[in-house]
């Protein structure tokens, strides 16, 4: 079992980001703050990556035991400037005038805006040459902005803080966390519901531990800033896997957010194909069958125009008029995810709680179809305040095509659904934000794996699991988990709320008789009434003195 770690908030540099926002105030609209901060942080990370690799090359060139060792000065200079050496180590040769140190050294200059945009041009050329999909990742935005040179220099100085350094924080999704902060802090400027589009680290880590995407094709048709992909890579690293065994596919409908996703993936040297477009109405990957679909689609989107779908859309479970509704796109997302799963694929989806019980025909028909046809593997109810940017209660839907037990790893479970109620789990990292500890995530993920594993099969997983013992036989736990048969769900009118099935947690008897407890409660209440009367008299006396 992993040790319980202290819960950490997904963001720990609010003050610095707020200071950066203040530098932008008045010259840039609030909903555009992130579009100036994030490209600079990306440039900073590329520059840091170059510095690190440059130092590594210098070390091996001077190390007698290294195959790179040489005393020839010209040969050293050649290697230290060879672009292929840097590309082999997932970075680029960054010219001095495009380096973070150069921008920092010139932060007080009157032409710093020009220097920033020129640096963007240099790096953009490197990126486009490397991968044409990265075109327009760093457009010239500072010169034509209303920012003053002093404001621009101030931002550069603020972002030079170690908290924004990938070198200092190698495991953090810094770009994603900055994105979340600005979307959350200025949600009103973004528009209603903007915060739904960023998935907090707690939920992403839980989804990845549930799905274990260690090999194959990973697809996110609402990929946002790429947080699901970043966490999938971290999972692979922690379990000793090889990132070359996965391929990333994603679709995002907002160009600015797509740029952020591409930045995130580029920094991690992942194989990816990310496209711009509306996944509901313009699926850019119609033939893709993924081994894992991991997604947090925007919740409860209305007026999404299902009438624009073709009548024979292959994603639909039935007639368009009966399996869609303009009131919510939630279950169109479900059908999209299912359509993109391979024959043994599994999908993990963040969804609004309302999807578990909605009676709208276009939604309930889909839910009923999914239950009756054995598509739903598990439902996880999440606690409140996991999202920093939206208060909408959420849950996880786990859909799977390997429920027939023919994949050699898992037992047949077509007639069951696992319900998990995690509503009381997690701890408050701040007044507004709840997070899951590693122990919380292990408990939920291990329960799911214990339930679906075939105990008669010796696991052939190429990557050992780091969570608790998956060999422990699954057991229902009152108030937490219940493996319900489909007939139970059908009798509950296809409602999927875990609380209906798991019941309430058994309370320990403290041994104190009920009558004694009532006497103590009565005495406490009388005492509080007396204190209240005294306080009332004191307040009235103070008024008399005025």
From TrEMBL:
UniProt keywords, alphabetically: Methyltransferase, Restriction system, S-adenosyl-L-methionine, Transferase
Any GO BP: DNA restriction-modification system
Catalyzed reactions: a 2'-deoxyadenosine in DNA + S-adenosyl-L-methionine = an N(6)-methyl-2'-deoxyadenosine in DNA + S-adenosyl-L-homocysteine + H(+)
InterPro entries documented for this protein: D12N6_MeTrfase_N (IPR022749), DNA_methylase_A-5 (IPR003356), DNA_methylase_N6_adenine_CS (IPR002052), SAM-dependent_MTases_sf (IPR029063), T1MK-like_N_sf (IPR038333), Type-I_RE_MTase_Subunit (IPR052916)
Residue span, N6 adenine-specific DNA methyltransferase N-terminal domain: 14-128
Molecular function GO labels: DNA binding; N-methyltransferase activity; site-specific DNA-methyltransferase (adenine-specific) activity
Boundaries of every DNA methylase adenine-specific domain copy: 172-510
Family annotation (Pfam families): HsdM_N, N6_Mtase
The protein's Enzyme Commission number: 2.1.1.72
Gene3D superfamilies attached to this UniProt entry: 1.20.1260.30, Vaccinia Virus protein VP39
Family note: Belongs to the N(4)/N(6)-methyltransferase family.
Name of protein: site-specific DNA-methyltransferase (adenine-specific)
């Amino acid at each position: 079992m992993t040790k319980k770690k202290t819960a950490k908030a997904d963001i720990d540099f609010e003050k610095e980001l707020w200071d950066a926002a203040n530098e932008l105030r008045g010259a840039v609209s609030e909903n555009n703050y992130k579009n100036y901060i994030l490209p600079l942080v990306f440039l900073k990370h590329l520059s840091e990556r170059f510095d690190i690799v440059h130092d590594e090359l210098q070390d091996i060139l001077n190390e007698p035991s290294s195959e790179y060792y040489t005393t020839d000065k010209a040969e050293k200079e050649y290697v230290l400037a060879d672009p292929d050496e840097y590309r082999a180590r997932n970075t680029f040769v960054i010219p001095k005038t495009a380096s973070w140190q150069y921008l920092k050294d010139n932060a007080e200059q009157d032409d710093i805006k020009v220097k920033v945009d020129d640096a963007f041009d240099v790096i953009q050329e490197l990126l486009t040459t490397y991968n044409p999909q990265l075109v327009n990742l760093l457009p010239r935005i500072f010169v034509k902005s209303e920012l003053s040179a002093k404001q621009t220099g101030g931002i550069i100085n603020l972002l030079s803080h170690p908290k924004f350094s990938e070198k200092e924080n190698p495991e953090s999704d810094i770009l994603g966390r900055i994105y979340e902060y600005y979307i959350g802090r200025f949600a009103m400027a973004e528009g209603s519901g903007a915060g739904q589009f960023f998935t907090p680290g707690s939920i992403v880590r839980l989804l990845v531990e549930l799905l274990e995407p260690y090999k194959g094709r990973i697809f996110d048709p609402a990929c946002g800033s790429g947080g699901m992909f970043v966490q999938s890579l971290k999972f692979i690293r922690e379990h000793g896997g090889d990132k070359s065994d996965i391929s990333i596919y994603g679709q995002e409908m907002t160009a600015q957010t797509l740029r952020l996703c591409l930045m995130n993936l580029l920094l991690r040297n992942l194989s990816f194909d990310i496209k711009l477009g509306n996944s509901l109405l313009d699926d850019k990957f119609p033939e893709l069958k993924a081994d894992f679909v991991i997604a947090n689609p925007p919740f409860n989107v209305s007026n999404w125009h299902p009438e624009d779908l073709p009548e024979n859309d292959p994603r639909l479970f039935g007639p368009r008029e009966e399996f869609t509704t303009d009131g919510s796109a939630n279950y169109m997302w479900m059908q999209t995810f299912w359509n993109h799963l391979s024959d043994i694929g599994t999908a993990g989806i963040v969804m609004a709680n309302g999807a578990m019980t909605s009676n709208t025909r276009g939604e309930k028909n889909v839910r009923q179809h999914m239950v009756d046809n054995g598509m739903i593997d598990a439902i996880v109810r999440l606690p409140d305040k996991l999202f920093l940017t939206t208060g909408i209660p959420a849950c996880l839907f786990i859909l799977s095509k390997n429920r027939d037990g023919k994949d050699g790893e898992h037992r047949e479970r077509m007639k069951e659904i696992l319900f998990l109620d995690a509503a009381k789990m997690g701890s408050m990292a701040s007044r507004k934000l709840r997070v899951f500890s590693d122990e919380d995530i292990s408990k939920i993920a291990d329960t799911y794996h214990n339930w679906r594993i075939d105990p008669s099969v010796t696991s052939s997983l190429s990557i050992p699991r780091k969570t608790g013992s998956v060999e422990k036989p699954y057991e229902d736990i009152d108030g937490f988990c219940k493996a319900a048969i489909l007939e139970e769900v059908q009798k509950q009118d296809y409602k999927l709320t875990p609380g209906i099935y798991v019941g309430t947690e058994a309370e320990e008897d403290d041994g104190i008789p009920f009558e004694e407890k009532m006497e103590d409660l009565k005495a406490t209440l009388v005492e509080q009434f007396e204190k209240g009367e005294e306080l009332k008299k004191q307040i009235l006396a103070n008024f008399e003195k005025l």
